[in-house]
Amino acid sequence: MKKRDIFRGVLCAAGCLLTLSCVSEKEKPSYIEIPKALSMNVKGGNPFVLTEETEIVIPSELKDWQAGISVFNSSLRKLTGDTLAVVGSSSSASAVLLKHNPELPSEGFRLHVNADEVRIEAADAAGAFYALQVLNQSLLLQKQAPFTLPAVDIQDGPEMKYRGAMLDVSRHFFTVEQVKRFIDLLAVHRLNYFHWHLTDDQGWRMEVKKYPKLTEVSKEFYTQEEIKDVISYAKQRFITVVPEIDLPGHTTAALVAYPQLGCTGGPYTMTTDKGGVHKDVLCMGKDFSYQFAKDVLAEVATLFPSPYIHIGGDEVPRDRWKQCPDCQAAIKKYHLKATKEQSAEDLLQGEFNVQMAAYLKTLGKQMVGWDEVLSDNIDPSTIIMSWRGLNQGFKALKKGHPVIFSSTGHFYFNNCQAEDAANEPLSTGGLLPMQTVYEAPLVLPESVAGRDTLVLGAEACLWTSHVDNDQLLDYMMLPRLAAFSEVTWTGSRRGGYADFLNRLPHMLEIYEKMGFGYAPHFFGIKASYAPDAEKNQLFVTLNSVEGSTIYYTLDGTVPDKNSQVYQSPIGIEESCTLKAVAYTPSGLCSDLLQKEVKVNKATFKKITLQTTPETRYAGENGKVLVDGVRSQPFHTTGMWVGYLGKPMEAVIDMEEKQNVTQVVLSSLTDMGSYIMGISKVEIYASDNGEDFTLLTENTYKAPEAKMQGKKIENLTLNFSETQARFIKVVARGFEALPEGHSGAGQPPFLFVDEIEIN
């Protein structure tokens, strides 16, 4: 190929899956600033121009740096049609020089660019790769030759050692090429660990030579040769692949293949659930279960170079173990006695974990487990991945365990990212806007002060119950992964969220150039509602990111920059539709806030809860029930009143006798969150607030055990016209989650919102 043709091409951007109309056209920046660098000084003067003579110069002893150069050249070929020559020494006037600098921290780098040369210094190959990524992304922002690199000095390096992302391939299988595409996403964001969730109830996806039936029952799986290919691909991008073999729970697929692994002996059937927790797990009283686990882990350890192997350990029901003679015999064998905090069965899983950790040590591996593996008898070297909130990680640190934070409330990307769930892809979990990801408070409390060295890092997780293609995967991961990358790379150096948003538009352009889609959810408007009984008004306070301007309307029209600018709380006296939108200086627009305010005889009135709700879901002592605003289908918004194991009883004082014929209240159903809705509603009336008469009652059908998604129902109860001052509403939940649900037999939550009296 003729070198003079190398930089004559024009970049053709891949068609993006989603377009961002709110981003204004701006002059392209010198370099992508996500994650934000430790220091960056963009200098004046002429840029470095890539020509047909440009060469990459690297000393011969830095052989392991060649992988990063290869990835850089591969991207360059897609952009320009050719690559840069790689030489050991050069007399060319146009060179990219790579130099080893042992004084720099691991994965850190220095990048110096002027008109004459590009110089990269790094302590290791990973640092050099990240510096080349900075150059690559700058070139991707350019549409045509000549391709240039503006003069700059950058020094950078990560704060966290472990910067990971997890992909669940059990619930939905992703091909090797799709997995590599996911790895590309990680590389763009300088993540260095790929957590590969290979087994679960829905399928066993890794070939195990000793147990071939595992993949026979699961149909779609990866051969060991395919796994080696993925590992090699990730290694070239300085990403370590951490395999997860979920044990001893989430093992339905294994039980179907080998029924003797279970307490009952089966037969077992493959589950059609897209998630959930299943009672049938590995029997902890059979030697075969332990031997099976060790055999599998031995093959995993041989296949994966990673120093870490994840054994899952989460969501393991004890039901079968309590009834199993073999498990009860094992409890006696290991002298396990229940404590105040843990049952004998809890400690039985702990014994299994101890044995697996010890066995993995003989294979040169360190065990990782979800935070349920944290028990009194667990090996202290076990790495705890805290998914049930940040506090679980703090608890593990206090016990001396290394920790990786993967809190569901901050880093689970299967959570919905916008309140308008009806117009979003089906998701599991709660609400996780990008701002919550970015502002994750990874600050250690005083109780674990001095344990900083045990914090390995953090991980973003994507469970694929409802994600079955690349487009949905992109939508759920991006741009939240950009925020996460700054949490892990920049760490405590993070600035405010507004600063991050000002740098985001150019990263979105990188996604488009690389053929990735993204969700158009960047930030929102937070509204708080304060009903004022004395003024008979609802005061709405709006907040958004620093520096943004909020515009709103009350007539149902979509606001724009010509609409009313929000400056102080809005007083609302009559029914209306509030809509608001905000704009940042960089041109990003917020999600549309839309709230129907319906003023009725209950609105703004005094309400008394006669039963105490759960502390987390107190709903401002019931005030959210009479603020005139109905919530979105997320129980964590603060606008629901939630109960567990008892009914809601609320009395509303309408201040004077009024004629009433109807009561409407909202009920939330979310079976994935153990929220089952309302089973019965009773309406009472009183003149004095003490003596109540039943007006009407109604019962409601239980939802299906396997119901997917979230649902709000506005329950309407009509009755003969009655004059009263006080109305009592009693909402009763269901006694237990139904058979077929992963939590069958447990009491469900009851969530109630807006009470309307007409």
TrEMBL record:
Residues 624-733 form the F5/8 type C domain. It catalyses: Hydrolysis of terminal non-reducing N-acetyl-D-hexosamine residues in N-acetyl-beta-D-hexosaminides. Keywords: Glycosidase, Hydrolase. Its EC number is 3.2.1.52. It comes from the Bacteria. Residues 161-491 form the Glycoside hydrolase family 20 catalytic domain. Pfam families: F5_F8_type_C (PF00754), Fn3_assoc (PF13287), Glyco_hydro_20 (PF00728), Glyco_hydro_20b (PF02838). InterPro entries: Beta_hexosaminidase_sua/sub, FA58C, Fn3_assoc_repeat, Galactose-bd-like_sf, GH, Glyco_hydro_20_cat, Hex-like_dom2, HEX_bac_N. Residues 34-156 form the Beta-hexosaminidase bacterial type N-terminal domain. Belongs to the glycosyl hydrolase 20 family. This is beta-N-acetylhexosaminidase.
